[in-house]
Design goal:
This protein has about 475 residues and is an alpha/beta fold. Helices cover about 40% and strands about 15% of the residues. It has three domains: about 160 residues, 3-Layer(aba) Sandwich (Rossmann fold); about 80 residues, no CATH class; about 150 residues, Glycogen Phosphorylase B (Rossmann fold, 3-Layer(aba) Sandwich). The two termini are about 20 Å apart.
């Protein structure tokens, strides 16, 4: 099993889901796992599971690949001709200059993008006039002709020691480089173990899953916890989309976390419906209902998640503004971080609600339990949410939830107030109603609590195991 993160070292729901699945599979008694992550810290634990870190393998096995370097720059379309310097300058100006670089060995130092640029400058080649041709060669245009550029590690400046590549297991600016490296090392790790099936979680590990399949011939399952359409809306990153599509096409089975996500996989990625299976996540959340007491006199409305476009934070702030025009005994909390964090802080200030609005940044597991224990309402206005574990954790904490209709969890959580993610008036009305009518809040919590009891990781693991068994026997899975 390939994953990008595992508790206690997580930055989102992916790690939580991986632990739930691994723990439940390990407890079945008929399954043992080798969980491969970019970086293993040593405190990861689960029954019948061995944790293997790509970082440790790279340190132990110095020479595993060749010494080539791949530089990925914008490529023209197949029918796009670049025969002059003017055409090249226009092409470069219309696109990103340098996407990423990737070394193919841990024997030599890792070159940073800035070092590649310095190498080009020492060769008197302006970096902004360099691109990759359809054959994958690094080229520039001189006197109307394409000139192939050779770049090697030996071209690094004499006396300088570039930093060696290290796996982080994080979501860094060099993420594509790290996922590519992870695939190379993952292939080698797979060759050293005996197993029946490969399971890769989300696009970050699909390349590793494909590499392991090609090296061992074992069947591959890819687990779609989110798609690029969920993360970005109508403008997916073409590089991530390509990795996702290739992973789904190469897989023998595709698991999605909801029917909502299954439809996206089939419609947007063109994947054969017969090999795509929706298996709901479970919830294993022990609330702190008695340890913390809710403050008297004020109500607390909570948003918990990444502060990114996908999660709809702007609609939460706009709804808060509308509620606070009617009620003043309410405080709002936005817990998490993300690329829209500063923008949301500014938005709250501009709306004049900063004195009733609190930003916590990222919260660890215990802090999440504390926050939910003192919350009165949980709101998830996600633009697109493949599933959504946090609303289930809120229900376990006896907190009524308001969720977007565009979420996978809406399929299984019937007793929740469901709204369109951008219907700010409906979100505000729902918050107002839950505050003003305590009986409504209690009714929703009681009914939803009974629903959540049926969402167990053990059932999720049973269905996943059925997929394993059937693809290993070349049968069409029936879960």
């Amino acid at each position: 099993m390939f994953g990008w993160e595992f508790p206690p070292h997580i930055s989102g729901g992916l790690g939580t889901a991986c632990k739930g699945i691994v723990d439940a599979l390990g407890m079945r008694g008929d399954t043992s796992l080798i969980f491969v992550a970019p970086k293993v810290f040593g405190d990861e634990k689960s029954i019948n599971t061995v944790f293997a870190g790509a970082d440790r393998y790279a340190q132990t096995h110095k020479k595993i690949l060749d010494r080539s370097i791949r530089i990925v720059l914008p490529q023209p379309e197949p029918d796009q001709q670049i025969a002059s310097e003017d055409q090249l300058v226009k092409f470069i100006s219309d696109s990103d200059k340098l996407v990423y670089i990737e070394t193919a060995s841990f024997l030599h130092p890792y070159l940073q993008p800035g070092q590649i640029e310095r190498i080009l400058l020492r060769k008197n080649i302006p970096p902004e006039k360099v691109y990759v041709n359809p054959s994958g060669q690094l080229v520039t245009v001189e006197n109307g002709e394409q000139k192939v550029i050779e770049v090697s590690v030996e071209d690094t400046h004499e006396g300088s020691e570039p930093a060696k590549f290290e796996f982080t297991g994080r979501y860094t600016s060099d993420l594509f480089t790290e996922t590519g490296m992870f695939a190379r090392v993952g292939e080698k790790i797979a060759e050293q173990h005996n197993f029946n099936v490969i399971h890769a979680h989300d696009w970050l590990t699909y390349e590793a899953g494909i590499a392991a399949k090609k090296a061992t011939g074992k069947p591959l399952v890819v687990h779609v916890h989110a798609t690029e359409y969920d993360r970005t809306g109508a403008k997916p990153n073409p590089q991530v989309f390509a990795i996702e599509k290739d992973g789904m096409e190469q897989a023998d089975a595709v698991i999605t976390v909801s029917n909502h996500t299954r439809d996206t996989v089939i419609d947007k990625y063109g994947i054969d419906p017969d090999k795509v299976f929706a298996i709901y996540n479970g919830v294993d959340f022990k609330p702190d209902r008695h340890k913390y007491k809710k403050p008297k006199g004020e109500k607390l409305v909570t948003f918990l998640g990444r502060i990114t476009y996908q999660k709809g934070p702007r609609y939460f702030i706009e709804a808060a503004f509308k509620v606070l025009r009617q009620l003043r005994n309410v405080r709002f909390v936005m817990a998490g971080n993300g690329d829209m964090f500063a923008q949301m802080v500014t938005a709250a200030a501009r709306l004049g609600i900063a004195d009733r609005f609190h930003f916590t940044d990222f919260l660890n597991h215990d802090e999440v339990r504390h926050l939910l224990a003192v919350s009165d309402i949980y709101v998830m206005p996600s633009v697109s949410e493949p599933f959504g574990i946090a609303p289930l954790e809120a229900v376990r904490s006896n907190v009524p939830v308001i969720i977007s209709k565009q979420s996978g969890v809406a399929e299984v959580l019937k007793h929740a107030i469901k709204v369109d993610y951008n219907d700010v008036d409906s979100i505000a009305d729902a918050i107002h109603a839950l505050i003003e009518y305590p009986a409504l809040s209690k009714h929703i919590v009681k009914a939803a609590h009974n629903e959540v009891k049926s969402l167990k990781w053990q059932e999720c693991a049973r269905q996943i195991s059925a997929v394993y068994n059937n693809i290993c026997n070349n049968q069409n899975p029936e879960i």
